[in-house]
From TrEMBL:
InterPro entries to which the protein is assigned, alphabetical: FTHF_cligase, FTHF_cligase-like_sf, NagB/RpiA_transferase-like
EC main group: ligase
Pfam families, alphabetized: 5-FTHF_cyc-lig (PF01812)
E.C. numbers: 6.3.3.2
Cofactor(s) the protein requires to work: Mg(2+)
Source superkingdom: Bacteria
Protein's name according to its UniProt entry: 5-formyltetrahydrofolate cyclo-ligase
The keyword Magnesium is assigned to this record: yes
Family: Belongs to the 5-formyltetrahydrofolate cyclo-ligase family.
Keyword entries, A-Z: ATP-binding, Ligase, Magnesium, Metal-binding, Nucleotide-binding
Record lineage: Bacteria, Bacillati, Bacillota, Bacilli, Lactobacillales
PANTHER family, sorted: 5-FORMYLTETRAHYDROFOLATE CYCLO-LIGASE (PTHR23407:SF1), ATPASE INHIBITOR/5-FORMYLTETRAHYDROFOLATE CYCLO-LIGASE (PTHR23407)
GO molecular function: 5-formyltetrahydrofolate cyclo-ligase activity
Catalytic activity: (6S)-5-formyl-5,6,7,8-tetrahydrofolate + ATP = (6R)-5,10-methenyltetrahydrofolate + ADP + phosphate
Species for this entry: Lacticaseibacillus suilingensis
Amino acid sequence: MPDKNAFRPGQIARLKAAAAQTQAESAALLSKLMATPLWQQAQTIATTVSSPLEVATAPLMAAAQKAGKQILLARVMPKRQMAFLPDPGPAGRITSKFGLAEPPYDATLVNQNPDLMIVPGIGFSLKDHYRIGFGGGYYDRFLAQYAGPTVALVPSVMAFETPQWPVESFDIPIQTLIQL
């Protein structure tokens, strides 16, 4: 089994090749999420602004706002930490050093306890709910301290029966995987 750093380039190449399929699957995955009690009961939903390789989060954010829910976006912080802040909308977002669209930092607006956390990744193990991300450990560090519900939207290209990467002691499984 390759280590995580060896697994990522091949998986990212697969994601690029399947980007159109992932975008096509996004609406069905969002529909399944919206049918869950987790979504229906949540008033604050944490997510990220997706890249073209990931399940589209713009429709997710629009659906949340239409339902009167608050969207919190991840912001990368020093020491591989994250803060979640209200989405200021596309015009109010800034670009991080990683090229990610994030809200500007305001300590008075940080919310580290959203009602629902939508967790991104590049691969998910269907058997035990482990994930692999883009690297850096930001989500695993955050999830180690977060007690609320976690969900991942898993398009077919990101679904693996078992992990094809090593699972380490600090990896945090996702509670609910939504797949087609």
